[in-house]
Amino acid sequence: MLEVKDFSKKYRNNKKYSARHIGFSVSAGEVVGLVGSNGAGKSTIIKSIIGVLPFTEGTISVGGFDVVKQSERAKRLIGYVPDDHSVYEKLTGREYIDYIGSLYGATKEQKRHVTDDLAKMFEISQALDSQIAGYSHGMRQKICILGALVHEPKLWILDEPMVGLDHQTMSLLCDFIRKYADGERCVLFSSHNLEVVKSTCDRVIFIKEGQLADVVDLAADKNFDLNKYYTELNEEKKDA
Questions:
Q1: Residue 155 near residue 2 (C-beta atoms within 8 A)
Q2: Would the pTM count as exceeding 0.85?
Q3: Measured between alpha carbons, how far is 175 from 121 in angstroms, rounded to an integer?
Q4: The dihedral of CA 178, 170, 110, 103: what is its sign?
Q5: pLDDT in tens, 208-228
Q6: Three-state secondary-structure class, residue 87
Q7: What CA dihedral angle connects 22, 28, 29 and 35, to 10 degrees?
Q8: Is residue 239 predicted with pLDDT exceeding 70?
Q9: Is 199 exposed, middle or buried (0-12, 13-18, 19+ CB in 10 A)?
Q10: Which of 98-102, 158-162, 185-189 has the lowest mean pLDDT?
């Protein structure tokens, strides 16, 4: 569903690459975690996948569609939850979902499923007809999640989705992520919460200083010590 090949990104007037020669894929039915320290390049990769950030080298495809050459078709397959949970504050929650759904060509049934079923599950139904400007941080996260799901994307991407959520909502979201990836859909999310990553992901992609450090198959090793490995990986000196 997602294929990243020899991806590199260098910002203008910056001699150093923010990401260099990164390649990985995410298949239908998978939940894949993107892990790395602050500034490692995770958000650069994600923003390039969703098409809001041009990149320097390589190719990215979603569902077989090139994100540069076939950007509209690729984007229609993606649902994205940003780390800053940006929303249109003057809209109500229901208006926001309807607007995002219309942009992605969601059907009336898909919109109804989000506003009725998912809103109830994430305990936000009572706020759907209130202006988003009055939402709490957690409520904004939830409405971003619902907006990302309204068109039932094949690839659901979340950037640090657990920050600021209470324990109950975190647990609910983790369970839902696993269920969402059943069948022909998949999920890619970045997180600093290694416990969430271990309990939710099939594989973990480690990014270190803009490079692909390792890919670990958690599904093949249920006893893998993710915390220990991550600590050791960050203590290693970067190869010359």
A1: yes
A2: yes
A3: 12
A4: negative
A5: 999 999 999 998 988 899 999
A6: coil
A7: 20
A8: no
A9: middle
A10: 158-162
Record the tokens describing residue 32, joined without a space. 């894949």
Question: What structural domains and CATH numbers belong to the chain?
Answer: 1-77+154-240 (3.40.50.300), 86-153 (no CATH)
For residue 240, pLDDT beyond 70: no
Task: Give the residue among 146, 165, 157 at the shortest CA–CA distance from 94.
Answer: 146
- Which residue in the block uniquely carries the two structure tokens 């050459």? 69
Structure tokens at 228: 């220990």
- Of residues 12 and 180, more confidence is placed in 180
Phi (first) and psi of residue 46, to 5 degrees: -60, -45
Angle in degrees, CA 204, 205, 210, rounded to 5: 155
Over range 4-20, report the average pLDDT: 91
Strands 31-35 and 203-208: parallel
Question: How many whole angstroms separate alpha carbon 35 and alpha carbon 193?
Answer: 9
Instruction: Decide if 99 contacts 151 (C-beta within 8 A).
Output: no
